[in-house]
Amino acid sequence: MPELRKSPIFEGWVIISTERGKRPNDFRREKKPARGGFCPFCNGNEDKTPPEVLAYRDPMSAPNREGWKVRVVPNKFPALQIEGDLDKRGDGIYDMMRGVGAHEVVIESPDHSKNIQYLPQEHVESIFWALRERSLDLKKDSRFRYILIFKNWGEEAGASLEHSHIQIIATPIIPKRAVEEINGSKFHYDLKERCIFCDILMHEIKEQKRVIYQNENFIAITPFASRFPFESWILPLKHISAFEKTPTEWFPSLADILKNTLTRIDIALDEPPFNFIIHTSPCNQPDMPYYHWHIEIMPKLTRVAGFEWGSGFYINPTPPEEAAEVLRNIDLTKCGNGAEEVRNVEGQ
Question: What is the pTM for the complete model shown?
Fold first, then answer.
């Protein structure tokens, strides 16, 4: 029978439609051929992007030339422009301001064919170092109130280029989703004097039903009120409100759990398109005892349609407990450099 579940953080409800229950094979789709053609992010095409703002490269190499490991450049077609002041104004009942912000691209690797989960762990650590360094720099700009870090992988997830990359957008307002999370977290804290995310962690570690993987500093779970099939969250085990305040000695375990979780999703679902988003506290905020930074990973397996738009409910055909069991039971000891070399212990 279908089940309604309420998020402990948001006001919204989710319908876990067990009668529509879907296993990983039900989501497999026909893969589209590689688009091919010219790629501005590939090695040797550095002059086809705006000049880099950060690069980890061979010390003997020159800026904006070959020899880099991770490279950050302004987006050539930015959603927001770095120049100008906000110029807040009204027009009758309407509010406006200039589209001021920053929009940058983190090119994860010179290798066109490697997604982040199939890079060496040390390389993934370097990507997190770049994200931290750019976050700290952008937060110095008093015009910016939030730093949004996200990845679109696959055309269905909104990626316009095949070459694996992450985007950073600094905005002059706090996004609605972040406001809702912060307000929901604060409500719980005001009521119980505890962080809701810390409470979730304690419950999930005790129950183990929705745990995918855990290492010394992080845990990956499928949330109780998952909006999407195989939605997964990665959270630090200790309370930290801002991503860039994560102890740098934790970056190896952060790289490990991201690679681990994404690889399991790849194997179970045959390399699906996905989005991941780093949820963090707003700019220039003191440590928040009620908010806990985390990564949300959403494989693009279903479509949001009229009911979801009209009701605000999400319909998830795969209970998170089943999704966690499938992902947890992936045998990564057989993993080579790609998901195609791995077999699920269930034989899927």
Answer: 0.91
User: How do 165-171 and 146-153 pair as beta strands?
Assistant: antiparallel
CATH code for the part of the protein at 3-28+40-341: 3.30.428.10
Tens-digit pLDDT profile for residues 39-49: 999 999 999 99
Which structure tokens are listed for 98? 């200039």
What residues pair up with 165 in beta bridges, in sequence order?
A: 107
Catalytic residue among 163, 165, 279, 294: 165
Say if CB 41 and CB 49 are below 8 A apart: yes
Q: What share of the chain is helix, strand, coil (3-state, %, to 5)?
A: 30, 20, 45
Active site residue 165: yes
Contact of 167 with 75, CB cutoff 8 Å: yes
Longest dimension (CA), the chain: 63
pLDDT digit string, tens, across residues 271-297: 999 999 999 999 988 899 999 999 999
Please provide the distance, in angstroms rounded to a whole number, between the alpha carbons at the two ends of the chain. 26
* Domain range list for the chain: 3-28+40-341
